[in-house]
Specification:
- The protein is 7% helix and 41% strand.
- It has a single domain, classed as Structural Genomics Hypothetical 15.5 Kd Protein In mrcA-pckA Intergenic Region, Chain A (Roll).
- It has two helices and nine strands.
- By secondary structure, it is mostly beta strands.
- The strands form two sheets. It has a five-stranded mixed beta barrel.
- The termini are far apart.
- Part of the 30S ribosomal subunit.
- One of its GO terms (cellular component) is ribonucleoprotein complex.
- Keywords: Ribonucleoprotein, Ribosomal protein.
- This is Small ribosomal subunit protein eS8.
- Belongs to the eukaryotic ribosomal protein eS8 family.
Length: 123
C-alpha cells in the first residue's frame, strides 16, 4: 500500500520527522485495469461509509446510439490513448476505442471506478 501523506523530505533536502503514523485515509491503491472477458466485479469500501464497485473484467457495454442506449458485447479494444500496451492486453479505460456489436465506440465511463462500461458510438 502506498502512502499518500506528506513528504518525509523538506524542500531544503533535510529530513522531516513523522509526528504520527499512517492513517487509513492516506492509503492509496493500484489502478484497476478492466479487461475484456467473463464479467467479474469487486466491491471496495471508500470514505464516507460508501462502497465502490470495480469492474475487474467485463464483456458488456451500454452504447448510446442516436439518443437511445443499447446493451452490446465488447469484442476487443481497438485503440487506447492512455497506454498503447493496453490495446494488446485488451484493457478498457475511459477514452478507449472498443469494437462492439453496434460498431466502434468510445468509452465515456471509468470502469475501474464505476463498475460498468458506458460508450458513445463513433462516426
Amino acid at each position: 500500500m502506498k502512502d499518500q501523506g506528506r513528504s518525509t523530505k523538506k524542500r531544503t533536502g533535510g529530513r522531516r520527522r513523522p509526528t504520527r503514523g499512517k492513517r487509513k485515509h492516506q492509503l492509496g491503491s493500484e489502478g484497476t485495469e478492466t479487461r475484456v472477458g467473463e464479467p467479474k466485479l469487486k466491491t471496495v469500501t471508500s470514505r464516507g461509509n460508501t462502497t465502490k464497485v470495480r469492474a475487474i473484467a467485463t464483456d458488456r457495454a451500454t452504447v448510446a446510439v442516436d439518443g437511445e442506449t443499447r446493451s452490446t458485447t465488447i469484442e476487443n479494444v481497438v485503440e487506447n490513448p492512455a497506454n498503447p500496451n493496453y490495446v494488446r492486453r485488451n484493457i478498457v479505460t475511459k477514452g478507449a476505442l472498443v469494437e462492439t456489436g453496434e460498431g466502434t465506440a468510445r468509452v465515456t465511463s471509468r470502469p475501474g471506478q464505476d463498475g460498468q462500461v458506458n460508450a458513445v458510438l463513433e462516426e
